[in-house]
């Protein structure tokens, strides 16, 4: 019987994926930025948050597109590494791709796609110059497509206690099953074309399940290095302000009861 990898093993093996991504980015002359909890870990712990079970990176849309194109064009040469997304992997349920090491196997109730050990890659798309205008234009569509994706992934309807909320949600639930998941993920991806990245002052990841959180584009026009488990990684310029805008005082450790992995999956090493 195969032994499930422990958290420390997952963290250590994921560093191999990180080194491969860095190698690719250096080869094709693009940037990546450690993101979310990974960026907090780099800033606060010089490595993983002790209980973190994944690794996140941001890429600006122009550089993200180059990275995706490289990974798909060179898919055979990259093995055992592979970029999974909804366009090349039927049944893949997420709007962001995962760069995976297929020498490992994931078990999860969230989907049936045979992923391995992974790093999440978040594209940052333009939001124009006026956040309020962009919010009015994009947010209703973004929320609709994301809700359809959530209903399909959950394969159930979550009732609200409020009738006025419940009826619209139920209609969206019914609508979410009119088309396959890839239809709604494509709709999310198309939001990236609503504003020119080059002409925008703010950016956002439209395609992931996060609240509307505009970020100054200037933070991603340059980088500074942070240490992560002995590896130099790129962080957005002025990352401290960026993290405080998103999380508040991120240097304060959360309560003990919140110090646990965020995902429900198991990783095994293929034999």
Task: Give me a quick take on this structure.
The chain is of the alpha+beta class and 271 residues long. The chain has helices at residues 7-28, 36-45, 61-73, 75-78, 131-154, 163-175, 181-190, 239-247, and strands spanning 33-34, 56-60, 81-84, 98-101, 104-108, 117-126, 202-204, 215-216, 223-228, 231-236, 265-269.
List keywords for this structure.
271 residues; alpha+beta; Beta Polymerase, domain 2; 7-stranded mixed sheet; 19% strand; globular
Number of strands: 11
| Large-scale geometry | globular
Radius of gyration from the alpha-carbon trace, in angstroms? 19 Å
| Beta strand % | 15-25%
CATH architecture of the domain at 7-125 and 203-210 and 217-269: 2-Layer Sandwich
What would your notes on this structure say?
The chain is α+β, with helices and mostly antiparallel strands. It has a domain at 7-125 and 203-210 and 217-269: Beta Polymerase, domain 2 (2-Layer Sandwich). It contains eight helices and eleven strands. A hairpin with a 2-residue loop joins strand 9 and strand 10. The mean pLDDT is 92.
Give the topology, please.
Layout: H1 7-28, E1 33-34, H2 36-45, E2 56-60, H3 61-73, H4 75-78, E3 81-84, E4 98-101, E5 104-108, E6 117-126, H5 131-154, H6 163-175, H7 181-190, E7 202-204, E8 215-216, E9 223-228, E10 231-236, H8 239-247, E11 265-269
Parallel strand pairs: 2-6
Antiparallel strand pairs: 1-2, 3-4, 4-6, 5-11, 6-7, 7-8, 9-10
Helix pairs in contact: 5-7
């Amino acid at each position: 019987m195969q032994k499930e990898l422990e958290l420390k093993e997952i963290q250590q093996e994921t560093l191999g994926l990180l080194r491969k991504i860095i190698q690719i980015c250096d080869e094709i002359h693009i940037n990546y930025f450690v993101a979310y909890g990974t960026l907090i870990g780099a800033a606060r712990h010089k490595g993983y948050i002790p209980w973190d079970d994944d690794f996140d990176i941001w890429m600006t849309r122009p550089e993200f597109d180059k990275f995706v194109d490289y990974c798909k064009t060179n898919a055979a040469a990259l093995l055992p590494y592979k970029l999974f997304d909804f366009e090349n992997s039927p049944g893949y349920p997420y709007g962001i791709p995962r760069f995976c090491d297929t020498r490992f196997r994931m078990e999860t109730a969230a989907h049936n796609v045979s992923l391995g050990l992974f790093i999440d890659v978040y594209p940052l798309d333009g939001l124009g110059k006026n956040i309020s205008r962009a919010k009015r234009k994009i947010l209703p569509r973004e929320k609709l497509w994301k809700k359809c994706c959530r209903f399909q992934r959950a394969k159930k309807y979550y009732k609200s206690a409020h009738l006025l909320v419940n009826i619209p949600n139920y209609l969206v639930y019914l609508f979410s099953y009119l088309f396959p998941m890839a239809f709604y993920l494509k709709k999310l991806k198309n939001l990236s074309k609503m504003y020119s990245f080059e002409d925008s002052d703010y950016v956002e990841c439209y395609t992931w399940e996060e609240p509307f959180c505009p970020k100054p584009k200037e933070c991603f026009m340059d980088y500074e290095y942070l240490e992560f488990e002995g590896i130099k990684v790129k962080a957005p310029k002025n990352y401290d302000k960026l993290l405080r805008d998103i999380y508040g005082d991120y240097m304060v450790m959360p309560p003990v009861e919140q110090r646990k992995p965020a995902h429900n999956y198991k990783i095994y090493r293929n034999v």
